[in-house]
Design a protein that fits this description.
binds flavin-adenine dinucleotide; 3 domains; 16 helices; seven-stranded mixed sheet; five-stranded parallel sheet; 492 residues; alpha/beta; 19 strands; FAD/NAD(P)-binding domain
Length: 492
Amino acid sequence: MKKVVIIGGGIAGMTAGVLLQKAGFQTEIYEKNALPGGLCTGWKREGYFIDNCIHWLTGTRPGSGLHELWKEIGALGDGVELHKKEMFFSSKLDGRVLTFWRDKERTRKEMLELSPEDEKEINKLIDYVSMAENMTVPVEKPFDAMNPIDFIKLGMSMKEMGKVMKAYGNMDMKELAMRFKNPLIRRAITDYMPRGYQAYAFLVSYATVTGGNGDIPAGGSFKMSLRVAQKYKEYGGVLHTNAEVEKIILRGKRAEGILLKSGAKVSADFVICACDTNYTFHKLLPEAYMPGGLKKMYEEREKYPVNSGFQIAYAVDGGFGELTGTRVFSCEPLKVGSRSVYCMSVQSYDYDPDFAPEGKMILQSNFSQTEEDYRYWEVLYADKEAYRKQKNKTARAAMERVVTEYPFLAGKLRVLDVWTPMTYTRYCNSYKGAYMSFVMTRQAKSITVPGKVKGLDNVLLASQWLMGPGGLPTAAAMGKFAAWRIIKRKDM
Ligand SMILES: Cc1cc2nc3c(=O)[nH]c(=O)nc-3n(C[C@H](O)[C@H](O)[C@H](O)COP(=O)(O)OP(=O)(O)OC[C@H]3O[C@@H](n4cnc5c(N)ncnc54)[C@H](O)[C@@H]3O)c2cc1C
């Protein structure tokens, strides 16, 4: 039986593990942390549960290959309930609120009432959101293994999406916002995603929710990761935690196995690198093996930026239904990382009663952080006490602004936890603290990286970094593709 060693117990690594075990391979996952899941995680604090990943999980609607993959690896199915959030997010400006509802017709109506002069653009936006609801993430086989018939099938299934790309594919968020005259609509659009993001990403994200294809599995991110780990073990997979890999042992054009930080060596017929690709090609393998396209993306920082977050979880003493969903509002200037921000968000996790003790609730704020902000936290991190003080100070200042916006929270809010881009680097070796892959800017070419390593016969890649903009579906698809490549290898 061929042995496959998988480095990284995130969603990509575990997906590869489940599928290879099913196909009769002997696999072992080596995960540096005490728990599996990688970025798809959450943690307990003082009786509360901080969910730190899934805002929406693409593929919750039955009828797609991705949905079947989620079921196959245990992420969905088997009675896993789904939370169907009523709103995507809302934005507030000068006392007026615009909400992007799950029910897109309600959004259309609200937008038209707000700004009749934008009727044409509003109708166009909502009609194209309808079309984007048919977007699917192809998970059948790696793109470089697709034949003309596969491409024709893919093209047919993406017909509607083609129209969306034609209309919104060559525009960034700022340009999309500027198509509207109404300041609140403009604000809402730029509140949602950084201005340099491609506009179609906004339509696709919103369509995932309106199309019922982006719900949240009950129990949230960490429980989903545990279900996948459980499925892996049920198929006979071996998951080693607290097992950091130091490097891949090479001999000629092959990997012989891996060297653990503990000094132990593990031999393997195949090695799958299922962790951050920057880390893979700087620590686990010599940089010379990095695929050319990927190297270019790391070099062209303006064209392929990455984002992270400065995040705060607040414990709320009481339940406030009016705070449901994600709400963006203007605030007094607040320095977060290297820049001042003028608006912020709070997200309520009231949809899962298990996340807070009875009669209480949990809120989170997430401030988008650029590479420059990352540098700020990285420098500060060298002095742990200064880093701790600054993040707590920023969190308190943010909390004050939440109370200014929602005065009924006065005396009922306290900071439960604060984490920065550095947290992701420390926890998952994430490049510049990014928790998704490269941003899809207008200047960026399609972001796809082959899952093979040129010059090494038996080393595969599986990570969200292989296809922009990353995310859980990409991680699962890339895990599946790595397994597919190994299963198809007749010569081994
Ligand atoms: C705040 C936040 C919100 C998000 N929201 C969403 C969302 O709503 N929807 C969505 O689809 N996605 C979302 N994501 C993104 C999603 O979490 C990631 O795309 C996905 O989890 C990446 O999976 P991965 O397996 O590619 O990488 P990772 O999760 O990074 O897994 C890699 C694993 O490798 C391990 N590792 C690293 N180095 C070593 C080593 N040397 N030895 C052993 N193990 C090692 C790491 O510890 C980690 O467990 C969000 C992420 C965050 C943080």
